[in-house]
Amino acid sequence: RSTVQVSVIPGDGIGPELVESALAVMTEASARDGVELVLREEPAGAAVYAETGDALLPGALDRLRAADGVLKGPVGLPEVRKPDGTEGGLLGGLLRIGLDTFANVRPIRLLPGVRTVMRSEPGSIDYVIVRENTEGLYLSRGAGVRNHHAASDQMLITRAGTERVVRFAFEQARQRRGAPRDGVRRVTCVDKSNVLRSFALFRDVFDEVAARYPDIEADHLYADAAAHALVVEPERFDVLVMENFLGDILSDLGAGTVGGLGMCPSGNIGAEAAYFEPIHGSAPMIAGKNLANPVSQILSGALLLRHCGQEATAARIEAAVESAFATGRVSILPSGGPEGGTESVTQAVIGALG
Ligand code: NAD
Ligand code: IPM
Ligand code: MN
């Protein structure tokens, strides 16, 4: 019987209830494939910051690196602030830079049976945003300057940082199963190279890397036009690669087209560590009320298991989520929460595990 060592960060707000749901599904699904999950909890986030002045406990990065995979709930509480006005409980910089997880993989898929504001057919929205995760505008985190009258942050794009994430995006395009409507494998570079030098470097490096992947179409869009296209013709997209801040914004936009933030999982992938979390935040207003959609966390668990080599279990969980929606046992209200509550989704998905 094989085992998978999972570090678990329950997080803040809706984090703990989502993680509980995902772990219940992952444990059941793994057991059917003869795999045991060995869980170890790593407290981190806003509550930990409020108590200790740091969002991670000492030694946390080493413990997370040692795990086979990390399942993370959303963290952060808007009222837990640092003296500079930014939030103290966030882990984005600490984990993404600390673990050098340079690629943030955000699949956006419209599942059959999911209500959406779009007129798209189920299956026709199926793309992956690869968000650069260690530089761009976010490198300025904690380093911007501010006085009473003005404040400024800085964006940094490096050749090496761009090259590795663009290569990752092309490899994703080669490997992934979903496809754009026309069946042509492509990677779309999203930038603002018409205005900003940093983005001009990003696009030049993209073109250099693209030339090494003649089997995959290279495509470009300015970020403003990309936001429009993601709404009016999402079927054209396969893999998109972009700077950190653009990826933050456009992935939430994508979520809005496929049933909401609660449908969208993500992986933060590096050479030595990886962690998996919903793309959304800790939704403090609905925390502890059995109102949140746990699908984002459950699908993050599937991505984690796939990353750990447990393809059959990952596919089992994804199929169960799809079947729960397709058969109408789970449905999402216009509010973004599931009909019947968080726990009813957990039970429906477990019930649909083949
Ligand atoms: P949010 O993503 O938490 O919430 C935005 C909206 O979506 C809210 O209306 C919320 O109720 C709803 N929502 C989010 N997830 C949902 C789900 N699973 N089911 C149903 N509804 C859901 O964003 P916010 O309100 O801007 O931020 C709240 C906190 O989360 C802040 O502290 C922010 O910094 C933090 N945050 C953390 C992460 C992370 O840990 N990865 C990501 C984004 C935001
Ligand atoms: C995300 C979040 C984070 C980000 C915040 C919480 C630091 O919004 O993972 O998308 O901006 O990267
Ligand atoms: Mn975000």
CATH fold type of the largest domain = Isopropylmalate Dehydrogenase
* Percent strand: 15-25%
Q: Rg to the nearest angstrom? A: 20 Å
Distance between the termini: 20 Å
Low-confidence stretches: none
Summarize the structure in short.
The chain contains 11 helices and 12 strands. It is an alpha/beta fold.
SSE diagram, text form:
Blueprint (H helix, E strand, L loop, with lengths): L1 E8 L5 H18 L2 E7 L4 H7 L7 H7 L2 E4 L19 H7 L4 E7 L16 E7 L12 E2 L4 E2 L6 H17 L10 E6 L5 H14 L6 E6 H10 L6 E4 L1 H14 L7 E5 L4 E5 L16 H13 L3 H16 L15 H11 L2
Parallel strand pairs: 1-2, 1-3, 3-12, 5-10, 8-9, 8-10
Antiparallel strand pairs: 4-5, 4-11, 6-7, 11-12
The structure holds nicotinamide-adenine-dinucleotide, 3-isopropylmalic acid and manganese (II) ion.
Keywords:
oxidoreductase, globular, binds 3-isopropylmalic acid, binds manganese (II) ion, Isocitrate/isopropylmalate dehydrogenase family protein, 38% helix, 354 residues, metal-binding, Isopropylmalate Dehydrogenase, 11 helices, two-stranded antiparallel sheet, binds nicotinamide-adenine-dinucleotide, 18% strand, IsoPropMal-DH-like_dom, alpha/beta, ten-stranded mixed beta sheet, 12 strands
